[in-house]
Amino acid sequence: MGFDFGRANDAQRLAIETTDGPVLITAGPGTGKTFTLVQRAIYLIEERGVAPEEIMVATFTEKAAKELVTRITNELDARGISVNLTEMYVGTFHSLCLRILKENLEYTRLKQGFRVLDEFDQSYTIFQNFHHFKTVSGWEQVLGGPQTGTWRRSTMLCSLVNNLCEELIDPAALLSDSDPDMMAIGQLAMKYRELLADENLLDFASIQVESHRLLTEHPEVADKLSTQLRYLMIDEYQDTNYVQEQLVFLLAKEHGNICVVGDDDQGLYRFRGATIRNILEFPSKFPDGECRIIPLVTNYRSDAQIVDFYNEWMTTTSSSEFSFDWAGFRYDKTIKPAGPTPLSSPSVIRLEGEDEKDWQAQVLRFVERLKASGKLTDYNQLAFLFRSVKYPKVKALAKYLEEHGINVYSPRSEMFFDRTEIKLAIGLLLLVFPAYVQSLGQKDSPAAKFLKPEQRTYYSECIKQANTHLSTPEGEDLREWLVAHGREHIALTAQTDYAIAGLFYQMLAFEPFVSYLATPMDTGMVDLRPTRNLALLTQIIGKFEYLYNVSILSGRKGKGQSQRHIDRTIDHFFTLYLRLLMEGGIGEYEDDSEYAPSGCVSFLTIHQSKGMEFPIVLTDSLHTVPRKDRETIIDQVIAKYSHREAFEPEDQIKFYDFWRVYYTAFSRAQNLLVLTCVRDGKRTPSKYFRHVYNDLPEDSSEAFDLSEFTFETVKDVNIKAKFSFTSHISVYETCPRQYKFYRDLEFSPVRISARLFGTLVHQTIEDVHRAALRGEEHLITAENVAKWFDVNYTYLSRAERTYLAPAQQKSALGQVQRYVERQDGKWERIKQAEVDVSLVKPEYIVDGTIDLIRGESGTVEIVDFKSEKKPDLHSTSKWHQDRLERYRRQLHLYAHLVHERTGETVSKMHVYYTGEEDSNPQISWDYSPTAVEATMEVFDETVHKIMAREYSGCARSEKTCGTCDFNAYCSTQPGKPRN
Fold it and tell me: Hey, how many other C-beta atoms are within 10 angstroms of the C-beta on 453?
């Protein structure tokens, strides 16, 4: 019996079964690209007998990767095929490169516990260390003169170093350049590289550069990976950059089976270093005729009229007002609808207003008409697309719709600091530090010097909102709390046992925060938004306290300091940290598991909408025109040091990019596409849209018959969640309410239990095991173990901003040395160290890592290390018994994962207590299928409770409650044991 291609058409079938050699799949919008990728992976596994670990699939987003894994596993399950897909290399380029780096850490500059900087962290790290960069001659010429602030200079430097990374330009090459600006850029980039190395850091761009360096400088690693990875599939290839292209060819050098998938007409990310040339030049990388080009052109998404509309958009390159030529810089294609339109009504229309207020009213009228017709069953069927959702006009429309009862989902509009709950929280935090509030009105204070007028105005509005709330009966208790703490902070001479985050968690015990936190989890996105935003605020405060190593507030002055610690800390928080976040903007919560939240219309950028589809799409931003980006110093660097010549004609790029952006926007629509604008007869719509816009019927036209339409429902996003024993099951069993706040809503905990000691012991033991597995047992000496320990401590303590006293360091090293001595050089039993034993289940993914040793008769044994003393097995203490039982169940889970994933038989399970000095440091259990099965049943039951969001229970232990950040809040809730 042959392979079941399902509903695949002829072109998709060809793409699925053409697996060997280089393949280019050009996939137009709605042509079943993801379906084809899923079936291609299934074909490799089922028909060609390829193991999952021999396949790599690179996606554009993590959400796409998760969806791909889910769809592949569901299809495999439907076909009755049992394989463990977690071994497949699936993810974004960044996540795949991180996996490769972690698996080969000893070959890189990175040490255990390295930290990856996000965009803000990267800029802030440079900002905090900017004095180092000022030592470079000519730095001001490159990063701006005195009128340019340090923060702006820091973001400019980020852009410079990121662009160098994406183009694989070695900064050292610029050091001998005769141009002083080029030389300065090289020196700045070298200093930044040194900073990353010293602090054991990576940023997003350098993740890929470090991976490239690993593969080029260590051929044995490249050979191992390229031999293992027999088939590579790269999605969205039109949005890859130079370093990503190089990584693909390095990983595919052994087998050469590269399948790239994409649509050159949807290449949108030039501003991030992506280049359309990668997909256009891909066939020329191979001998003539070797690369198979397979076009997918049958569109299953959109009404035929919509398809015709965006086809016309791409091919109309001249009118009386503009002209350009694609000149071979796109693949010639015409997208074909899967069938004729069933409508006599037009499915592409225009909606306009005479001015902004009229436009808002017209949009509202149109949405209400859709709803009243009964054709629109959920507001999430409707999406608005803009070039930017940060425009005042866009924010004003969102506000207008919400004022008229239509909820808007717009997480990237940077409205976080404008939300009522955030302004109230910030206002209350300001009032609890009266000295800072007073400084806002003092001419010589840091606040007056560094805050812009609009930021001072914002803080005043926050304070006003807080005072309004405090003057109500509901705010009376909070007012008493705030006044008491404010007086304490003014008079503070000693130190508190809390910092800003601790105060914030105390505030959550008062209204309106109690009501926000009690919002049912099954309510809509907008209802839950205040709670999610408060959670995000805890992350912001937590990040500040981490960056500045703040754990308490002190009334003392440091040596040579004119301010008390508390005043200096609060100054940094409000005047510097929050100010920079407000300037940069913060997005709100986005849920990967939801395509478009029910009950909300979506406001998205066109870039954000890429890969999505909606029944009804309103495309705005019709005032825009093609613009040539202003040349910058980095453009000059790339032009001079790039590894390849310029590609597209410079004077045509602005047209190419403009047409691609709106092609992407128009092709998101399934049933109805609406072009909308404030028509002023001059600038809007711009001349580049008039040739398609003017001939469209208006929404009020008799030709537009809404009764003919049947709107699709928004598709479900089927993404399998990951669950582990320690991070999920154990937390939930301890307290479902804690799970709700910390894991689901993502509040950031203040009290993170001391973990540096245990992590240090564990990671140094891992170094020992890695040496043994490399066949370097001779390196496992007391001297080398001490060196590995010291390196780990240096970087882990920096990363966690916590430190161990000399006696604690000695104790931790002693635990590792004692473990090594007990092995007596017999390392041959070590089978694998920190092996990923994650397993894809029908409804979720079980996550876990464990050490494996060789057992008797070809079996394996599991070892989990605990950096503590072995408990008294005869103790009647319930705490000891519960803890031991939890460890046993955890090992049962790992045993199940090892058996299911590898097929190997587990014979024994051990907990190894490195803190045990005298007796046998292990507690061991024989493998019992019955006991393991019982544990897995409980695990599965608990996972389903979590998935159903059953969070009504709470901890019954005073010890648990006493150390929980939500203790004050929970004291207001029923069913909470009083301390």
Answer: 7
